[in-house]
Specification:
Layout: E1 23-27, E2 34-39, E3 45-53, H1 56-65, H2 68-71, E4 72-77, H3 92-99, H4 127-132, H5 134-139, E5 143-145, E6 153-155, H6 156-163
Antiparallel strand pairs: 1-4, 2-3, 2-4, 5-6
This protein binds iron/sulfur cluster (SF4).
Length: 164
Amino acid sequence: MKRKPSPVSEPESANDPSSTRKACPSTCCQEGVRLLGVLTPVGKVAYVQPPITISAAFVERAEALGHPERRFRFTGPCVEADCPQWTGAGCGIVDIAIQETPVGFPTDACSPGANNLPACGIRHSCRWYAQRGGLACAVCPTLVADTGGTMTYQSAEDITSKEV
Ligand code: SF4
């Protein structure tokens, strides 16, 4: 299922700590969204600090190389019910990712109160963090979108082993 691109008319609202609007931590590659992270060769997302607004030229280059959402993570406004991943109460992606976490995955490191959450630039407004707290941050670096394939999301490690 291909996700509907998020509108980016107000990209900075999700970057304002006083705003109640949430940021989607995995939106599509399109002009005006911000680069949140880059997939590293070890299959983990490295977060860009602070996230950088991407240009049309960036989008063009990234799309020319194919599947930008498999190699980068982008953030833009969470559009809630306008997104096919919206469950009616929240984002289905993070719930599924946590539910499918393998036995032994170190989620305890990101338990409430833990001070070793990934260094990410959108925590104050992140939809996934607001919904699932540190557990979301535990699984977040392992996820990339796969909007060009048959699955919406895949493990970043699987993508790395196949394509990087
Ligand atoms: S889930 Fe956590 S690490 Fe991932 S984007 Fe949100 S706040 Fe950042």
